[in-house]
């Protein structure tokens, strides 16, 4: 029996649109809008000014906090603005705007480092930090922080997240099929940096070609095992992945390190490999542009800072009248109100749905069917938390572990009364966190 977790759902996956399409290199953006906040933690401070000429890979944002990651120019050209610009989060973010000169000139400081075998663990972590590597699965947690657990926390297992359980998205799938050796090289760097000798690569069984490619790539590397997983959403959630593969349960309010595990996305591993091979920091990523609202869905290698509208144009433009543009997948992605928002390090997909596919539902009273309880992968009581949120009972919501919610959307998806449970619990989490800061 394939490994998995308790709870979860089986939404239509709709990956056929792009799962067999090789990654194409997207055109350079004419105007790259590069936000100084693309990760969890403190935003970067711009280190360039209007009028400066920058080259590809040059640092343009300095990270001055431990939980942060530097940001680099993704195109060569002239800095034409340093100002707040629209961001996929919905709030304008300080950004460096570069007018591309079309030359794609690489910064002189970008050079391959010494080989992985010659590097010390601290040198690997510093290389990852200076390259601005963050989690590529969407969360955007700075990778070097994850590889530096506090004193007293021991790590014995690394898990590579190749599940890609969100419907429609195929960026990680194509990466593992086309560049499996890079995923393994990045994983080996993580293992050496942390001193861990056991690693797993978890992949859902709806990607048999990726499982085969990764199995071929790990041959000869001791301690690395590919684990086929049941196809179920949210199989790629950190806690669900850890439980499925190791049987360990991350405690309430805890982190993977509390059960001696680090989880990194397959794309993160490939980004580390790229730095090891070329010295080029994180300036681009694979993004799936898909959905019924796009004429020609594709997997594109995209420079950070490329406006979403340009990507849709490179996929033939809109197919009919668009109803919704989502950054990410349909379950956890964020709807966008403008096409000027740029691709950032965590943008795994751009999903466009036709207007005819987008429906608004009117919530009805809860019928206490408990489907949300069955579906919740964290084993919460979503309908009860939703009621507490509606009544503004934040203390009680915290007592019932609202902060453990991963906002996967399973509860809202299965609710026959169309109650926006995920949104209500997210509201409760925001209010609880705000009260803690007072």
Question: Care to describe what's here?
Answer:
The protein is an alpha/beta fold and 438 residues long. Among the domains are: 116-278, NADH-ubiquinone oxidoreductase 51kDa subunit (Rossmann fold); 371-437, no CATH class. The chain is built from 13 helices and 17 strands. It has a 6-stranded mixed sheet with strand order 1-14-13-17-15-16, sandwiched between helices. Strands 2-8-7-4 form a 4-stranded antiparallel sheet, with no helix packed on it. α5 (208-218) links the parallel β10 and β11. α1 (121-130) packs across α4. The model has no long low-confidence stretch (mean pLDDT 96). This is Ion-translocating oxidoreductase complex subunit C. Keywords: 4Fe-4S, Cell membrane, Electron transport, Iron, Iron-sulfur, Membrane, Metal-binding, Repeat, Translocase, Transport. It holds the Pfam family RnfC_N. Its EC number is 7.-.-.-. It is found in: Cell membrane.
């Amino acid at each position: 029996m394939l490994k998995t977790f308790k709870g979860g759902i089986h939404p239509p996956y709709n990956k056929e649109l792009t799962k067999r399409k090789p990654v194409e290199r997207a055109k350079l953006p004419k105007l790259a809008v590069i936000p100084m906040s693309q990760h969890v933690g403190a935003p970067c401070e711009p280190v360039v000014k209007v009028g400066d000429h920058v080259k590809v890979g040059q640092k343009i944002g300095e990270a001055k906090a431990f939980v942060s990651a530097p940001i680099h120019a993704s195109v060569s050209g002239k800095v034409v603005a340093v100002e707040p610009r629209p961001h996929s989060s919905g709030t304008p973010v300080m950004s460096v705007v570069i007018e591309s000169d079309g030359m794609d000139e690489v910064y002189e400081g970008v050079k391959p480092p010494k080989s992985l075998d010659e590097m010390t663990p601290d040198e690997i972590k510093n290389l990852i930090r200076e390259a601005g590597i963050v989690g590529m699965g969407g969360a955007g947690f700075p990778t070097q922080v994850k590889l530096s657990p506090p004193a007293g926390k021991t790590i014995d297992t690394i898990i590579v997240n190749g599940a890609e359980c969100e419907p429609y998205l195929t960026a990680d799938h194509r990466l593992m099929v086309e560049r499996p050796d890079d995923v393994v090289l990045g994983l080996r760097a993580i293992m050496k940096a942390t001193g861990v000798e056991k690693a797993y690569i978890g992949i859902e069984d709806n990607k048999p070609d990726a499982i085969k490619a990764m199995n071929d790539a790990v041959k000869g590397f001791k301690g690395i095992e590919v684990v086929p997983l049941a196809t179920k959403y949210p199989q790629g959630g950190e806690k669900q992945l850890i439980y499925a593969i190791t049987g360990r349960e991350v405690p309430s309010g805890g982190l993977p390190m509390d059960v001696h595990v680090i989880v990194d996305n397959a794309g993160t591993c490939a980004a580390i490999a790229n730095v090891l091979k070329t010295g080029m920091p994180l300036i681009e990523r694979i993004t799936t542009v898909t959905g019924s609202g796009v004429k020609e869905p594709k997997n594109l290698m995209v420079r950070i800072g490329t406006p979403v509208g340009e990507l849709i144009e490179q996929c033939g433009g809109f197919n009919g009248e668009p109803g919704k543009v989502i950054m990410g997948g349909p379950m956890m992605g964020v709807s966008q109100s403008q096409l000027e928002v740029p691709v950032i390090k965590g943008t795994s997909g751009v999903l466009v749905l036709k207007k005819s596919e987008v429906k608004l539902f009117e919530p009805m009273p809860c019928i206490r069917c408990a489907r949300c309880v069955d579906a919740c992968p964290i084993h919460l009581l979503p309908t009860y938390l939703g009621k507490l949120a509606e009544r503004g009972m934040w203390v009680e919501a915290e007592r019932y572990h609202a902060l453990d919610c991963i906002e996967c959307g399973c509860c809202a998806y299965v609710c026959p009364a169309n109650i926006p449970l995920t949104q209500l619990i997210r509201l409760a989490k925001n209010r609880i966190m705000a009260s803690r800061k007072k």
